[in-house]
Amino acid sequence: MSRWVEVLFNIPLHQSFTYKLKDDQICAAGMRVEVPFGRQQKVTAFVIKVFDELPGNLDFDASKIKEINRVIDKEPIFDEAFIELARWISQFYLCSHGEALSAMLPSGRREVKASSDAFVDDFIGNQKLVLSEEQQKAVAGITADNSSSFMHYLYGSTGSGKTEVFLQCAEFMLAKNKGVIYLVPEIALTAQVVEAVTGRFGKTAAVLHSGLTPSQKLSEWRRIISKEARVVVGARSAVFAPVPDLGMIIIDEEHDGSYKSGTTPRYHARQVAMKRCSADKIPLVMGSATPSAEAWALMNDGRITKHVLTRRLAGGAMPEISIVDLSKEDLTGCISPQLEKEINETYKENRQTILFLNRRGFTHFFRCKTCGYELFCKNCSVPMTFHKKEGRLRCHYCGWTEQPPTVCPECGSVDVGYSGFGTEFIENELATKFPHLRSIRVDTDILTKKGELQEKLEIFKKGGADILLGTQMIAKGLNFPGVKLVGIINADTALHMPDFRAAERTFALIVQVAGRAGRYFPDGKVIVQTWNPSRSAISKACSSDFESFYKEELEARRLALFPPFARLIRLVFRSKNQKDAEDSAAYVANALQEKASNCEILGPAECALALISLNHRYQVLLRGQYLTPLQKLCDSFLKSYKVPQGVYIEVDVDPVSLL
Ligand code: ADP
Ligand code: ZN
Ligand code: ZN
Q1: Looking at domain 320-362+421-556, which of 3.40.120.10, 3.40.50.2300, 1.20.81.30, 3.40.50.300 is its CATH number?
Q2: pLDDT > 90? residue 102
Q3: Residue nearest atom 14 of ligand 1, based on CA coordinates
Q4: Pairwise pLDDT comparison (373 vs 324), residue with the higher score
Q5: Whole-model pTM?
Q6: Is the confidence at residue 476, as pLDDT, over 80?
Q7: Burial of 645 per CB tally in 10 Å (0-12, 13-18, 19+)
């Protein structure tokens, strides 16, 4: 007797395929198989159904059905509910069911124990802390059965003990034999939270981080399915963790951009978590000191229950923040006299300084002083950055490097130089201004080895340096007792991005970076250097005027019809051939326009990042009050549209950025 399987592939086709099992092959839904497909001999496929008899209404010749080569998994790695979730993802984010499944599953073939699992190895069984009154109220509110909404928000200032509240909520769930998913931004940057979780739960915890090989991920996946691990900590994709009897999903630093995937399907972990939690009728607990504008609006409406933490509990207090107006300074470097003085005083008190440099838009560019010519990457529409150590210009998008020109390629002037500053330049400035201070620099340029970031941060934590200089990497989650001073070298850079979230990002970044000061002693100081001290994102972050920042920001979004007051779908057309990209964007914009009702079609327009790795980029935006009509319009159109050769369309539902 023959048996058949229905499988899906990781391809953009909205259909499943049928294969035949050999007599001795043991297979069930939820396993992966290897099959011949098209011209390829070994393609991984996901089994969604096994059946004994072929259905009568086949639209193809049953004798042409091929056999599968082999069954990859011994046990299923996903179940019916997982297949359903993948179906939802594919419908919501407009990709195929197979693409969704593939993105949700670990890709490893053979299980390999995460041997050097340092996290779990130094399990110390950390004891619970005695909760403050505010924390107690939060835990009680979140775990109460009678809550009006399944969504909760722990809105607590930086250093107010959110982690402990999350941990005790997780313990509450474990005691009821329920599992927990605990999401953190990028795991390397949030090692302290991971340590807290594994330190509390030991082998009951599984960690899904980017440092694991695919095989190690598969092995953690199995520990979760078999209920050996009940608390899963991980970055974005851990939201898919197959936790049996899931009791709660926690999202730490909810505002963080890394929760949105940059590849198909472009899912947002918060959206997926909302879906899972509402389907299972379990609490979703988000937390941050700087909620996204969307979450803030939902709290205002009462659709998310807000729990507030206001006090620092480790002996610290909120730092004193002062602004340095760069337009009134005449600086040759990038450290103002005020900041210089504070760094020296902090050092005299035997305390430490963190200097934060927003990498984006604030690196060192080649510029002609005569005609203003800036050297751009030949593959991407971004300026080239100068790296002193190698003496070369480098593109941060595609990696292209070249020798810096000695004369301006545009006008021939020899009066060429650089503008802007990178961490490398500030490092030199520090060495000149503070020859007796030891500094450590962390940014992606120098951190190539695994574990190097952790190592450097550990040295700083133990007092092995006086200054920590870094980019976005040091904005989040760091908890250093010795830090007294935080200096933000230039607060403005994120502000000038042509993106509707620019103000929200600038605000969050300042608050988060400032929050690294004064965590254990009540004398923290923050100095914010800016060219735009009157811009609300900056002034309100510095005066800790949260309510009025969000009020203004939401009003601006409402007037400009941006989320959360409108929903968006963004289509990006990219091609090596500019005309092809432009033409297909124009064609699609036009075609959508004809069918659009209840929604607006914006574009076609060149993307702000018009060229990346030699790909020209054009975009079309669909905007409307509700998402469903946009999804329907887009979906039915894309299913019938034959994408021209050489053009690729990125579909982004609820985009978080429009660059
Ligand atoms: P957040 O995540 O809100 O920024 P953390 O969770 O990192 O803050 O907590 C900041 C510090 O406060 C940590 O050192 C933590 O150990 C300490 N802390 C948290 N809760 C308590 C408590 N109930 N009693 C004493 N210290 C606490
Ligand atoms: Zn010139
Ligand atoms: Zn480039």
Answers
A1: 3.40.50.300
A2: yes
A3: 314
A4: 324
A5: 0.89
A6: no
A7: exposed
For 3-104, CATH number out of 3.20.20.80, 3.40.50.300, 3.40.1440.60, 3.60.150.10 equals: 3.40.1440.60
Cα(313) to ligand 1 centroid in Å equals 6
Question: Mutate which of 124, 127, 129 to test ligand 1's pocket (most atoms within 8 Å of Cβ)?
Answer: 129
Cα(387) to centroid(ligand 3), Å: 15
Q: Positive or negative CA dihedral for 73, 79, 80, 86?
A: negative
* Cα dihedral across residues 95, 101, 105, 108: positive or negative: negative
| Helix/strand/coil percentages in the chain, nearest 5 | 35, 25, 40
Read off the tokens for 424: 């490398």
Q: Which residue has the tokens 């929760």?
A: 259
State yes or no: pLDDT of 42 exceeds 90: yes
Fold of 567-653: Alpha-Beta Plaits (3.30.70)
Strands across the sheet containing 305-309: 205-208, 231-234, 179-183, 246-252, 284-288, 151-156, 305-309
pLDDT digits (tens, 9 = 90+) for 569-581: 999 999 999 999 9
Ligand 1 pocket check: which of 169, 479, 511 to mutate, most ligand atoms within 8 Å of Cβ? 479
The answer to whether the Cα torsion of 155, 161, 165, 171 is positive or negative is positive
